[in-house]
Amino acid sequence: MSASFFEAARTNAFRVAGSLACLWLVGCSVLPKPPAAAVRYDFGPVPVATAPAPQAQRPAIALAEIEAPGLRDAETSVLYRLAYAEAQVVRPYQLARWTRPPAQLVQQRLSSGLGRDRVVLLGGDGPSQPKVQGQLPALLRVELEEFSHVFLSAQESVGWVRLRASLVDRRPQGDMLVGQTTFVVQQPAAGADAASGVRALTQATDKVVADMQAWLLQLGR
Question: What are the per-10-residue average pLDDT scores of the chain (221 residues)?
């Protein structure tokens, strides 16, 4: 056979191999891609604060489990609301999740914040009532009513936290209401995405904790 025959055969072989490679690449491109994993958020580290002097310690308090009647117990989606369009509709970000339900995250933050200058007992609303220095501490009940990234307009949004707090003294003859109030904080968000909403909600929660500390101080607690 002539050299030209072998040269043509080799050229055809390269062409076939190239075509097969292209088909393999095309086939790979049409294969289903795994779904993107959701980003999981929490509030991050608790802000560092200077430890109070011993004489600054305030009365102990019992913190009941925070209730969130408007949020499903197992709901961990980061929620947003278009207040300028459909204010009554709450939507979840598709790929943004909290590591735990918001009520649990808020309770952890509240316990850490109040615990800087007092003893905080968790779950003090149960059948077993722990005492501090022989006395039942006042009980703080909290309801988380709003916890979402709220868009006031297409360009402006806030992390919106609203909760109701009730402080009661527990006595043998029955509980006595010491004070009740509602805290509302709207913390401006830097952007229109889930990460910006999470940062704003974290800052709003820390502001609520500071406001609650001031409220308890006004009540002499």
Answer: 50 51 50 72 80 65 91 83 93 95 96 92 70 81 97 96 95 88 98 97 97 95 89
pTM recorded for the entire structure: 0.79
DSSP secondary structure letters along 79-91: EEEETTTEEEEEE
pLDDT at 90: 93
Q: Is the backbone of residue 44 left (phi > 0), alpha (psi -120 to 50) or beta?
A: left
Yes or no: say if 165 and 183 are a contact pair by the CB < 8 Å rule. Answer: yes
What phi and psi, each to the nearest 5 degrees, are found at residue 61?
Answer: -140, 145
What is the C-alpha separation between 186 and 163, in angstroms, rounded? 12
What letters, b where the CB count within 10 A reaches 16 and e where it falls short, cover 191-211? eeebebbbbbbbbbbbbbbee
Q: What is the token pair recorded at 146?
A: 């709003």
Count other Cβ atoms within 10 Å, centred on residue 137: 23
